[in-house]
């Protein structure tokens, strides 16, 4: 609970982005809150047992890269809209290329 609102914190989420030039592996930490309504009216919420959709903000960090992405470092922030069957995210930040 944070100021009376339930916050679900997800740590250690690892994403692997695969492309023609190599892979980029990111670790993310998100803090999700319930929107209190089902925006897309599908009856399924972002959290199991909930009918409400959710939003989140988070941070991300580059863990490693392969191919053209080898040696890259950096990180940034993310924002999310979760509707169980549909999820939208935006990642922004900075990376340094060796």
Describe what you observe in this structure.
- This protein is mainly beta and 98 residues long.
- Helix content is 0%, strand content 59%.
- The chain contains no helices and five strands.
- It has a five-stranded antiparallel β-sheet, with no helix packed on it.
- The radius of gyration is 16 Å and the shape is elongated.
Gyration radius, in Å: 16 Å
Provide a count of the helices: 0
Q: How many structural domains does the protein architecture include? A: 1
General shape? elongated
List the quaternary state of the chains: single chain
SSE-based structural type = mainly beta
How many runs of DSSP E, i.e. beta strands?
A: 5
Overall average residue pLDDT: 89
Task: Give helix and strand order, one letter per element, not per position.
Answer: EEEEE
Q: Biggest sheet, in brief?
A: 5 strands, antiparallel
- Unreliable stretches (pLDDT < 50, length at least 5) are none
Biggest sheet: strand arrangement = 1-2-3-4-5
- Bin the helical content: under 10%
Beta-strand proportion? over 45%
Distance linking N and C termini:
41 Å
Break the fold down into its secondary structure elements and pairings:
Blueprint: E1 7-19, E2 22-34, E3 54-65, E4 73-82, E5 87-96
Antiparallel strand pairs: 1-2, 2-3, 3-4, 4-5
